[in-house]
Amino acid sequence: MSTSEKMQVFYDGECCVCSAEISHYKKKDAKNSIDFVDICDSEFRAENYGVEDCDIHVNLHVKSGDGKMHRGIDAFIAIWENTPGFEKFARVMRYRIIYFFARCGYAVFVYIRPLLPRKSWRITKFFQRVIHAKWNFILRLVGKTPN
């Protein structure tokens, strides 16, 4: 399977919770059908993948093989649909009430994630990115153009 056909999962390699979950998915991906991209790697450039730097550091992103971008809970569903043993989770998540509560739970996680333990002392850079991303989001809501 070529890289262009592979699903790409963009994750925060410095987040202990995120890394643990991605590590689990890597073990389940026996066919090597998913390309896991650490957004905290010094070589990572969001623009090379067609995503905004301010947004990718806030939400989990998945780019499916057909090029469609999934964010947040939809990203998890895309991962689960393509990971052996997780297909049932994806189907259950499609029920409206479960999907609603999952989105609410993920929104809380996104809010508290900056407070979770990091793997290194690059915390300052991470917080700067999160604050910048949230500020740009607020500017977009009020119709202003972010810097």
Automatic annotation (TrEMBL):
GO MF, any single term: protein-disulfide reductase activity
Keywords: Membrane, Transmembrane, Transmembrane helix
InterPro entries listed in its UniProt record: DCC1-like, DCC1_Trx
Keyword Membrane: yes
Residue ranges crossing the lipid bilayer per the database entry: 97-116
Protein name, UniProt field: Thiol-disulfide oxidoreductase
